[in-house]
Specification:
Gyrase A, domain 2; six-stranded antiparallel beta sheet; 4 helices
Amino acid sequence: MSQSTLVGDAPAPTEVLIREAKDRQRRRYRRSALAAGLVALVVGGLIALLVTTTSSGTGTLRAASRPSGVVAGRGPVLIRPVLCFAYPYAASAARQAGTLPSCGAPYELTQSALNITPISAPQGYSSNNVPPDPALAGYPSSTRDVPSHDVLLGGLGDRTRAERYLLGPSELRLSAANVGSVVAQQNHIGIWIVTIHLSPAGAATWDQVAHENFHQLLAIDMGGKVVSAPIIEAVQSSYTSFNGKMEVSGALTPANARAVAAAVRG
């Protein structure tokens, strides 16, 4: 059986970025498949994360970027669909506070719009470039991380400069209820990794969520900050199970890695 690993690279900002949401909400998010011309995470540019196939059966969420000394927000660890990207908040374009708008059709990160295609190349896949929705620049980032609502969040790093994400309702919460074990440690080349082994029920839910979001972006939201946001199995032509294991890695500082592990244990 083939098995899956999520891996991330850091392309230029113009590159494409890599539930318990209601079916009608998901249909709304996917209503348009306009291609425009991938996972933003942290400071200074959008970050593309892709998925490779290995024999380890590991789900690795890596967000490569400049290291940050900022510890991720305290709070629950939620898995949310990435609906579209947003530019940093611009006070000059401020909109009246209220409900967040839907993504404009040309900016929706649907499977059709991204058009992820596995290829024989170093990156392992090709995709369309979907830019941030400029209309969201006038909306400040969400101050309440409500699992059942859309939220507009930034990644780790400088809050005034980082690109942001409009995320849909949470589709999975990682906690002691569905996680068997979690460990934060450095690998052999010094990168901090959070290894998560899900319970049988948690593994089944994660596979369902990942399968439904195949070739789309899912964000790891911890306390209102996006820790990682990978494209699901970008270098595969069909979905395969993660077998109950994730590895969150990339631009994590020791403090951030330990904070993620502590939040998941909680």
